[in-house]
Amino acid sequence: TPEMRNTSLQLQGPCYPVIYPSVNVFWSCQFIARPSNVSLQHWQQMGGVKINEGLEIDKAIHNEINSHSAVLKRYMADIGKAWPVLIVCGGILPLFLSVIWLLLIRHFVPGMPWITVALFNVLILSVTMFFYLKAGWIGNDAVTPIVGEHDPYIHVYGRELNHIRATAILMTIVTAFSILASIAIVRRILMATSV
């Protein structure tokens, strides 16, 4: 449609016209090859954004994708899509688990310190492994800004991947500290449960 063509010429998705090979990054057209003079001439004749050289189009796209308003818009869209998960995992599931926890405290008093320490360490270790998965350090499931199908040899990294990698490193430090603290309090737990 003419509307889709106009949004594409402003470097917004969908990627139309197909003058350059492109990939859909955060619903914006990210070009994966340097434009030739002929394709650049066609781009300008169609009314595309003014471009001086091959790198300028990349700079224009990156400035648009990384602007504060675009990042905030993406985060709000993610919250809008994930609201059922937030309600279940942030409200209903914790309420159910807290009732189970109270029942465990009532019926298994001597074992509760050990259950608490073991569950805490397993939980923090699994959260750390999740961040390692999403950072791409374990497996091939790294966070990517590319939307939909794309060539597997194209790698576009956004600032979100850097945030997840920094969080994975932070969680590694927190996990190591918590496991060492758990080992350090074993004697105190033994003294407390023997009373």
UniProtKB/TrEMBL annotation:
Subcellular location(s) of the protein: Membrane
One of the record's GO molecular function terms: transmembrane transporter activity
Keyword Repeat: no
Domain of life: Eukaryota
Entry GO terms, CC: membrane
Transmembrane segments: 82-105, 111-133, 168-190
Major location (coarse): membrane
Membrane topology: Multi-pass membrane protein
Keywords assigned by UniProt, alphabetized: Glycoprotein, Membrane, Transmembrane, Transmembrane helix
Annotated family: Belongs to the CTL (choline transporter-like) family.
Name the UniProt record assigns to this protein: Uncharacterized protein
Originating organism: Opuntia streptacantha (Prickly pear cactus)
